[in-house]
Amino acid sequence: MNESMTTREAYQRFISWQCRLRKLSVRELGGQPSAGMTAGVHSVKGGEEQSRMNFMIQHFHASTRTTEFQHIIRKSRDPSDWVKNGLRILSEWHYQDATQFETELTGLFNLDSTLAEALITAGGCRLKIAEDSIAHEFDFDVVALPPQHDHFQATYWHNHLFNSAMPGQVQVLQFTPRL
After folding, report:
1. Which residue of 56, 83, 110, 153 has the smallest Cβ count within 10 Å?
2. For the segment 93-152, what is each residue's pLDDT rounded down to a tens digit?
3. What single-letter DSSP state applies at residue 124?
């Protein structure tokens, strides 16, 4: 991180980079996450990587996107239609403006995930995200979201577009950066 850049400015640069990675993913990789769309999970105190996880960045208008994703899934029984239509929405306008994203990240976990349990118990973590020569790391507070929360719904339905075998019950954790 540039010495003169504040943590908040570095984080905004991170969100802009995430938008670029995600545009590339939906346009050229069929929505497959690249290395920079996964994070190494570490203790806030440092130490070795404990695990890796995929994460989502949250759009300010999460409920609008959620409604569109629900419609895509409910109107067709063919998961290939879900992916095709979801990629169309995501590649056309979803990641176009990095200023339209919240600071919080989310991650989807199975109900019996030991990683999710450890993160909730710790209440925080450090995420290290890197791809090629770009690397970012930030400390986060971690909480479990209730199913009715907009970010829970956005995370669930976004993931369901790409995973037709998604279980009905999952847990979604929210990662709030310590800026």
Report:
1. 110
2. 789 899 999 999 999 999 999 999 999 999 999 999 999 999 999 999 999 999 999 999
3. E
pTM listed for this prediction: 0.93
1-36 pLDDT, tens digit per residue, is: 556 789 999 999 999 999 999 999 999 998 899 999
Task: Report the alpha-carbon distance of residue 171 to residue 159 in Å, rounded.
Answer: 12
Q: How many helices (H) and strands (E) does the chain have?
A: 5, 7
Element containing residue 15 per DSSP (H, E) = helix 7-28
Domains of the chain, start order:
7-177 (2.30.110)
Q: Which amino acid makes up residue 54? A: N
Strand pairing of 134-144 and 170-177? antiparallel
**Number of other CB atoms surrounding residue 90 within 10 Å:** 20
Name the residue type at position 120.
I
The one-letter amino acid code at 98 reads A
Which DSSP category does 2 fall into? -
Dist. CA 148–CA 53, nearest whole Å? 23
The structure tokens listed for 15 are 């969100």
